[in-house]
Amino acid sequence: MSKKKKQLTFRSDTLAEALAQQDMAAVAFALRNDCVVVPLISAGQPDKPTDAGEVWTYREPDTGRIALLLFSDAEHKPAALPPLVGLYDGVWLHTFLRTHREQIHTVFFDLAGPHPMQASPDELLRVLAL
């Protein structure tokens, strides 16, 4: 009898529900207790746990400001973005934002819908630190 390999689902129902409510407290709960889908330029090395891959960010052409785009489901990621995604938790997001808070101007969740939401890095750091 062959064992079927469990397919990894690149989505967070908890985050999707929080975004549908447009409730930052619910989004914070989802980020602390579940995962978020992050577009990647390159994937991490499977044999090196500290290599999480290179995160893709959007730079506004006119201002040069950088936005981090996050998704509740890989299906919500626009096709124009890089095809690779990673699944990360709130600890990773807190560390990433703390490291890059001076460069990142804003964070968008599910930018193309169905329930987009925006937050500043400082706001997310505050709610993730609770």
Short description:
With 130 residues, the chain is an alpha+beta fold. Helix content is 29%, strand content 23%. It starts with 12 loop residues before the first helix and ends with a helix.
Order of helices and strands: HHEEEEEHEEH
**The CATH superfamily title:** Uncharacterised protein PF11572, DUF3234
DSSP summary: helix tally: 4
Return the domain count. Answer: 1
What is the makeup of the main sheet?
4 strands, mixed
Could you estimate the helical fraction of the residues in percent?
Answer: 25-40%
What portion of the residues fall into strands of 2 or more residues?
Answer: 15-25%
Counting DSSP E segments of at least 2 residues, the number of strands comes to: 7
Which oligomerization state do the chains in this entry correspond to?
single chain
Q: What is the CATH fold-level name? A: Trna Endonuclease, Chain: A, domain 1
Q: Given the C-alpha coordinates, what overall shape results? A: globular
SS-derived structural category = alpha+beta
The averaged pLDDT comes out at 91
CATH architecture: 3-Layer(aba) Sandwich
Mind telling me the C-alpha Rg? 15 Å
Protein name: Dehydrogenase
Domain SseB protein N-terminal: 16-124
Pfam family, one: SseB
What does this 3D model show about the protein?
This protein is an alpha+beta fold and 130 residues long. It has a single domain (13-41, 53-128), classed as Trna Endonuclease, Chain: A, domain 1, CATH 3.40.1350. Helix content is 29%, strand content 23%. It is built from four helices and seven strands; from the N terminus they run ααβββββαββα. The strands form two sheets. Strands 3-4-6-7 form a four-stranded mixed β-sheet. Strands 2-1-5 form a three-stranded antiparallel β-sheet. Helix 1 (13-21) runs antiparallel to helix 2 (24-33) and helix 3 crosses helix 4 (121-128). The longest helix has 11 residues, at 90-100. The radius of gyration is 15 Å and the shape is globular.
